[in-house]
Protein 1
Amino acid sequence: MKKLIKHCLNTLSRFHSPNLSPSALCTSTTLPVTPFSSASASASALSSASTSTSALSLALAFALTFSSPLLADEKADPIMDRVLGKGSWTSMIADVQLTLTNSRDEQRVRQIAFFSKDDDQGQNRLLMRFQAPADVRGTAFLTLERSSGSDERYLYLPAMRRVSRIASSGGGGNFMSSDFSYYDIGEPAREDWSYTYLRLDNVDGQDVHVIRAQPANNSVFEDTGYSSVIYYIDTTAFRTLRSEYFDKHKQKFKELSVLAYYEKDGHEFASDMLMTDTRIGHSSRMTFSSISLNNPVDDNIFTPRFLQRAR
Amino acid sequence: MKSLSNLFNTLNLPLSHPPILRVMQFSLPSRHAALLTLILSLTLSSPTLAESTFNGYLKTYTYADLNTHNYTDIGTRTQTLYQAWPNSRTHIFAALNYDLHQPDSLSTRLDIYPVEFYANLTWDNADLKIGRQFIFWGKAAWVNPTDVLNPWDYSRLSGEVEDYRTPVLALNGQVYWSQLTLQALLLPVFDPVTQPMPGVTHENPVSTPDHSQFGLRLLSYFGQTDLSLSLYHGFEQQASVIFKGMNMDLLIPQPLLIARHQRMTMIGADLARTFGPNALKMEAAYFLTEDRNGDNIYLQNPHFDWVIGLDRSFSDKFSTTLQFSQVLNFKYDRDSDAAALNAAGMSSFVQAAPTSASSLSAVLKAEPLPFTTAQLVHVYNLADGDHFSLAFLSYELMDAVRLTLGSILFNGPPLSPFGRSRDADKLFAELKVNF
């Protein structure tokens, strides 16, 4: 997992690049912008070729088929570069409300104090402390990002009175029993994924780029449990409006909807997200409030010893 | 030798939990009064009104004996948890339990006693916690050789550690330096959980400075590895039973037995290292006991306890812990101990302990359904084939309200550690409301 919570925010953030405008993106490839993805276009063209006697169609289909991966990358990568561009904030304090809803619409609500800060090497540190409900109050979770090897994770359970180093959960283990995985709330390393532009589409009246991300290697797949993720990215603001997550059987099993964005002083990220497990009907909503960016945060709070010391 | 001391490892006996107040009675031991005075002084020393919180829980519980099908305890526990921060460097923590329960069909009791009750003074690189508190050492699960501070109350096993471990009165100082933490402990009194047995007299150490206990622990957090070294000079939590001859005054002569907690020094180390979804945990401790030469058949021999285990997180909804542990007795001759036991007429009560005793343990944790957690703890002794299981299922009925159902099971040969408690099998149900 890389960059922890920032992914959840930054994946969905706007990165203002002076060199690349939305219109430039739409015209930077050799393919015309159509409501169809290049892959779909290729498939459609191939299909047409099999039934058409038109030599021109066949030639076009042939060309599209073999040129589309390169063209798709050329189109997807700049978009994802904008989407994944780091925000300018290095520390964040916020209150998080995590609402868990099961298939019978029963809800449990957790209130979490959230602290995040990059260290001198740019590695993220994240501390979350439960404030409510009362039976989990004081439970704290600390994650220290490590550039090599697995991230360090510590859990403090007030009932147990001790801090435990915990192993990471393979396969994108869930975050605090929610439908968000730890990977979902981390920022993926750019090189961990390869992106393919699929098509232009429309989500709730908003034009979106549809881009598929696939693990670049098996370890990424094992770490995330995702065979692919499809992003629906606003064509103008470059915000991810929706994501779909596919398991090892290439079946969609989770869906993320972004309900609100935080935007202030040049910072922008998703502040209200709903993740639904489409197989079991369970959903989790994560809402940020009382957000404070780039204000001083004591480095000492990101230490195992602090977990059991703080109120 | 271990055999006689194991006599006290019987889990089926009622324990004398230290109630502070019973119905129509009030008593407050002097050490608690002193602590209360100290905490109040710290609170009142604040120039401004202390920031404080008041929380707690209400828990209704029922324990049923699986063998007799009778309820062994029905009651309601209220815990009030008061915390105050008189200033930025002082934290007051006071948890009091009020147990209104029916330990048997004839009586109803109200027990009021402190759980934790301390003041924590903090500086940038140091803490000092003064008072009654939990101090857990070690990194393994359930079988912790270095976890020698807080006594176990086996009759109260449940899903919550507060129920079956008892806090200790301690001065607990910690100094932090980079990735290192040095902890120094002073425990002025020794207050074991004792298990009354017919014909056995307890001789607990008196609470004098001569009986203070000391501990040191150095912890480090480096990369994927946690390591600690520990030293403790105190008393064994498990009493050694000393045979004092036969009581010939009775119609049927009975052995005269004295239970006494021996001095010991423990030198230990523990380690935890993560490898992706796996965590390797090791813990070992050498115990230098009063029976340094192994020539007193009634005292615990010097011994070395170690455990190695692997945690595996298959997902956040399912994880396992598997462990192997072993106790090696030094300067121990089983044959001579067995002969001595036989000569003392004790062989029908206890058997000579093996030179080494190994066990396997497993902990499974799962979230089988939303808002539901399950846990299974199982310990199996290889030498005697006796075993112990604790299983419970907990469902979050609503925010801060939880229903827990569980069982505690023992099995094995009659004289084995868990086999002695075969009659203590229980089912339990708890409804807990936090506020």
Note: Chain B touches chain A through 49 residues (CB under 8 Å).
Protein 2
Amino acid sequence: MSVLLLLAPFALLIVLNVLPRSTQGAAWAVCLVLFVLQTAAAALFPFAVLDWTFLAPINEAVGFTLAVDNLGALLLGTAGLAGIAALLVGRATFEQPRARFLFSCLLLVSLIGMNGIAMVRDLFSLYVFIEATSVAAFILVPLRKGKDAFEGAWKYLILSAVASVLMLASLGFFLLSAGGVSFDAAAAALAAPTPFVWAAAALFVSGLFVKGAMVPFHGWLADAYTSAPPAVSVFLAGIVTKASGIFALIRLAPALIGAAGPAREIILIAGAVTAVGGAFLSLGQADMKRMLAWSSVSQMGYIVMALGGDPSLAVLAAGLHFFNHALSKAQLFANAAAIENRLGTRDMDRMGGIAARMPLTGGTSAVASLSIAGLPPLAGFWSKLLIVLALWRGGEQVFAIIAILTSLVTLAYFLSLQRRVFFGTVLPEWSAVQEAGPGFVVPALVLAALTVIIGIGFPFLLPFLLGGGA
Amino acid sequence: MTIMTIILVLMVMAALWASMTSILLRATIALALASATLAVVMYSLGATLAAVLELSVCAGLISVVFVSVISLTQRTPFKDMLKQRRDRLARYWPLPLVLVAGGVALSFVHAPVRIVLPLPGGDGDVRTVMWTLRQLDLFGQILVLLAGVFGVLVLFRKEGKDGA
């Protein structure tokens, strides 16, 4: 399966670009089919119902060292879902065929990058695919041009370049001190760390913190998310930032935290500061997309904080919140796109009572908001519960309490969003507003349905997750 | 003072000049100089292929790209240029001090460094490593280049009637 996940989208990308321009209109549909197939393959992966052994000769011929495990399948599936949502919103928001074509192609580049991140077994390859994903994102943000978009992309690019320098320096250190850059070599070096190895690990983790917009490297995220076209925001918030920063942290955390030293404390403090900082930054926002962007920073802090908990639960809790947050945040950005499309503004102080005119957008937005805030029985409740349990069982009661209290702040800013945008009597200015089109509503409904189904079905899902690991 | 120390000092000074000058063309020349001195360092360490690549790509090709892009821009009026120069100096004057302080601080660090040199496999040749052991990274690099091509298509293309 692994080699196909890189070569199939790559071949599609080449074919789409060598065919005559008249065929470019089909690119969007073909990409959608590919994203759906990837999501289905990733969902079926843990059940081992598909036999991929026929791909072994191709794998051998190209010589790629790749492997898919359950954690990798989680990223593959999440990338597929976020891509589907972004493509649907893109269909509704990129009116010109050429813009839609370029958007689809860049989504493919990003998908290949993320598929690589999910499957590599080597720090250098991980760095290369993180770069590929990031470069596609730098171009996606200013796809519609405009001063704000260029500024957002510029900040993202500059901070990402800093991260790249840190990670490259780390790779040099690992190469010298561990004798290689494979995950196994790095883990072996971390099992008996020297100061040189610690420096290597610290540099790599710092790079991932910048890419993952952890506080204090969070400054670029709100500008990039807010200034990007709506469909790009869905994709960035849904998966790109998580894949290029947070996923690698989840992957490397067991080796890092298993080693002696302050890694666990650093991860816990960085996670807690990010969770709390992002939540308070969300509170004061009037721009809907900006509030959602800071909320993403906060939730990424949660995911990282989980990694410092009890090792038997930490990766499961972090992985599950990674997935749940991707679902809900992609959906909330699709909702924000619908509202901006219909109202022509993102200023929440100018809204009110919109749920009466856009009931599907309002309803799905409530589901996603409450899920991220951690209300039962939605999917986000279970992942937050697991995070608190992991922290408590790991002896980190203070951080568990911080996680619970930050959840209350999360609930406060999402209730504020709901009140200002959807509740109350509709303002005369918006009395003629109609529900958004299917490009906005379908992804919102599908993602909200998944949030509810996973939430209700979680007690049945948990034994399987605990048995198989995340 | 050995020749290597002089080269390293020259490299750092060129990098500082590239960061602190307010004139793009001078920054490009400084960057090329930094790359050229780095190539000398690489060559003296035995990394011949890396030195050749650094010299040809970073000092050569990239400088050409920079200069051709700068030639497309408009010249800044003299008054504005003076102001930019003052602003830039005001903003970046601590940079050399930080660098010197960092260098002095590092000279006091004597952490035990146990270097485990990697075994590249095959015949140890860089080309063998690249083409037979790191194909996945080459694939990733091709992907980054492709993304760059899309970047040129998207960002440097005038908006036409079809919108992109």
Note: The radius of gyration of chain B is 21 Å.
Protein 3
Amino acid sequence: MSAQEYAFVVLAVVGSLSAIAVVTSTNVVHAALYLVVALLSVAGVYLLLGAEFVAWVQILIYVGAIVILFLFGLMLTKAPIGRDALDNQQRGVGAIVGVGVFAGLVFLIQDAFPMQDAQAFEPARGTTDVVGEAIFRSYVLPFEAVSFLLLAALIGAIVLARKDDST
Amino acid sequence: MIRLPLVLMFSALLFSAGVYGVLARRNAIMVLMAIELMLNAVNVNLVAFAALLQQMTGQVFALFVIAVAAAEVGIGLAIVILLFRTRESINVDEVNLLKW
Amino acid sequence: MNVLAAEGEVAFKATTNGIWFVEHAWIVVLLPLVSAALILFLGSRTPGKGAVYGITAVGAAFVFSIGGLWHFVEGGGPFEGSIDWFTIGPLHLELGVLVDGLTAVMLVVVTAVSLAVHVYSLGYMHGDERFTWFYVVLSLFTAAMLTVVVSNNLIQLLVGWEVMGICSYLLIGHWWEVKENSDAAIKAFITTRVGDVPFMFGIIALIAVTGFTTTNIGEVSHELGLGEVSPLFVSVAALLLFGGTVGKSAQFPLHVWLPDAMAGPTPVSALIHAATMVAAGVYLIGRLFEVFLLADEWVLTVVSIVAAITALGAALLAIVQDDIKRVLAYSTLSQLAYMVAGLSLGELGLTAGFFHLFTHAFFKALLFLCAGSVIHAVHSNNMSEMGGLRKYMPITFWTMLIGSLALAGIIPLAGFWSKDELLVVAHEEHATWLFVVFLVTAVITAFYTMRMVMLTFFGEYEGEAHPHESPKTMTGPLIALAAATIGVGLLGAPQLNAVFGKWVFFEEIHEAVFVPWIAGLSTAGALLGLAAGYVLYRERKARDPLQAPMGPAWNLLQNRYYIDEFYMRAIVRPVRDTWSAGVNWFNQVVLDGIVDGAAVVTRWVAQLVAWFDRTVIDGAVNGAGEVAGRTGNALRYLQSGNVQWYAVGLFVGVIALAVVFIRVV
């Protein structure tokens, strides 16, 4: 276990706990804030893995924009407070399914990449210029497509959310 | 330096939490948050493998996922606002007009 | 058509002046047939209502027949010609003519009497509402009789025979509005039918002799002559054929129809029931004479006995009749029996029997037509309502007298020569009992004939009608027939070479012999009978002079020996009321019941099938729909409307599939 690994384990624990807190919290605003913590820890993991650009984009967009959107949404829709108010009757089934999913995934991971044979690997080179090169050389077409998608999303959001003048 | 299975398990945990949140939360925005968790788990996976294989593909893909996630949250919240306007509540288990 | 040379010892001339008429004898048959069709289709629109076709056709046929007879007068031989009709397996059917002396003579008789009757009917049936139809059937009958006479094969003969039966039925029942007449017609038809059934079996037996290959009479006779057939078979066949004669020629016991047949118009009685149809039975025996000769002796004995009974019995019945036509009917029965008896005497009797047929046809037809003339004048058949008519109807009186004397057998009229001939043959064949019967019957015949003449023409007329002489269309034929009566007898007179015997004979010509003592005996008997009749009936009395002396015998005769009652009780009633009714019941109840029952069963089955269709099949179909509906009803609870519930399903499925695909597959 190297130092990076230790750091990773700490970040992973924090992230996991906050993720669980997101889905089990009784207060929606607390849940949103726990989401921030989870997202930040994920960004930390990216950094440990050597993907700097992705980590910064994560913080910028996810933490900076998306969570703010969530908070705005919560504000506009008068979210309720309380355990039963936040969870529906499928709690039991959902827990089972969630645990099942986790078990399944762990099984698959163990099958494909057993812990005993695992080898540590070098972090990636994820500096901005390298990522930029990759995007604008090999993946320029998906890049354009995504920009198109964002345009559509923008227009769509405006159309959906505007007030109807005709009643 | 980091062993791969650990990363993958972290991502699995995030994903499972997201699944529980999608299935068990009543508030629509809570469901959207859980979906974000799931997307993040996928991203972690992508980046981990990109590091393992020393390729850029995984990171580029993760960027695109983030972009799409942003767009999706925008639209999703627009729909939630619309739902709130018509029904005064955004509990997903009250949106069941298509039941038998 | 081919000409056969005659077999036997007689030599014939190869060709004569009349041979054309013989070779084309089929025209004689065709002429009345065509005229029947013409009268049927055009008669009602022709002036004179179609009688002209019939008279012309029969007149032409008569001329033809004279031409044919001329051939035999000059010594010509028989002629046979035929065309193939069709073949069934080995049996070969043909249409053909066989013309020998017998045929030629018969042709003359039939056409002459038919012509006389055709002309006579112009006057007698004048004004009748079915005048045209009468002439149609009259012509058709003539054609049928001619068919029988010229036919060379059994089937053709049978066809003509049966058509004659139908025409007789139609003509007897000409005035069918009166029930008696239609009853008489049915009685005639059925009684002759009873005789026709054995006749047909006889024909089949004869065809069987040839091995079912041909129906030709010549060939049948040839086969029989070979002697390979058992005599018993031939005897039975002969007896069966005689059945036809018994029926058609009204011999005992099937004689009952002829007196009743007098219900028909008098011209019909003259043609059919005196001269032609009843003579067909006699002709049959003559044509198939080989069969009778090759049969055992007892067959001809049976024939003689039947004929003798008929002759004597009918003559006795004629004594007590009041109806003038019935007297003549019984007289006909008696004279036919004479002919049959003559034929039963063998080869010698053939010539004599047919000579009597020849002469009898003329004078009996004459008598009937005279009777018709009398009936036409006084509008009644009964002699008790007549009397003293000789002042009013001289022509009728004189012609009737000639006919009566001929019937009684007075020289030199026709009846004398033919009866004398029969007596001679009976004597030569040593058939003494038949000789005696002939003689006694001759006496009785003379008696009732005179009785008839006395009651009708002598005494005073006390009736209410105004008798007058008949029109020329009626008296003309009377005079013609009277002349024939006087003349034809001479054809068989031995003193004049007995030419008749040279035309009609069996295998060899027999010289006719004149035996003086027989001739004297018969003349004496006839005069005895005539005198007795004259004396007894000279004055009219309220009751018949014979009634008292005869006592119960009179009643027996009046009731015709009670034979008719016997038939009614023993045969007609059981068949009609019991058997026919029983068969009818069987048909209505049992057979129709079966058919109806089948229908009922079918309906049950149909209902069963319907139930099956309704319950099982429709049930299955409806059930399928029900199951689909219920399943849907049950499954719809999956649609909770809750999106997260759907998501649960989604995730579970995905995980399962993922594990399956990655690990298992």
Note: The radius of gyration of chain A is 20 Å.
